[in-house]
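Hi support team,

I submitted a single chain yesterday and got back a structure, but I'm not sure I'm reading the token output correctly. Could someone confirm the output below corresponds to the sequence I sent? I've pasted both exactly as they appear in my results page.

Thanks,
R.
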Amino acid sequence: MTGPARILLADDHALVRRGVRLILDAEPDLTVVAEAADGSEAVAQAREQDVDLAILDIAMPRRTGLQAARELARIRPDLRTLMLTMYDNEQYFFEALRAGASGYVLKSVADRDLVEACRSALRDEPFIYPGVETTLIRSYLDRARRGDPLPARPITEREEEILKLVAEGHTSKEIGDLLVISAKTVERHRANLLQKLGLRDRLELTRYAIRAGLIEP
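Hi R., thanks for writing in. Yes, this is the structure output for that exact sequence:
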């Protein structure tokens, strides 16, 4: 690679983006060349821009960082991704790995860990933030010993998209327009979600979406 690595930074908080950009642009081998305020914009930017690494916040509007990472793995398999999050959560960590991410960095220690995480990702090496390795490895080994699978995704990617948009307050017609499906199909997915998750209404779906990190409280 000639010149500094080109980075796409996606976070819905402009202040966070500014802080992270200051950290990265201070390094001679890293430079932020594109920014996005949500997951959909991040995917669009990655299609248009020549970038080597995408840093994605997990909880963003329209499309989460995990949803964006899955899409980027499909359309830009050469692009490395890192997840940036406020949540120290084992489930998110496994979801990030499943989505093809090279690592998972906590915002609270981004000033300490992010540069190293970027360099690891660009070398095609995984980055696990300090302190989590022992817990995760023990948890993984315990599961393997018991013959249990890794934590399962309770809902499909399409159901996750619809759940997020319902929780954000969109109507069935608006969701249908955004996802290019009929309002009736949206209603069917919504009914399936309620049944599958054992929930009763939009309020409970919204609470579930917050707990799952699809939207911020």
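A quick pointer for reading it: The chain has a mean pLDDT of 85. Let us know if anything else looks off.

Best,
Support desk
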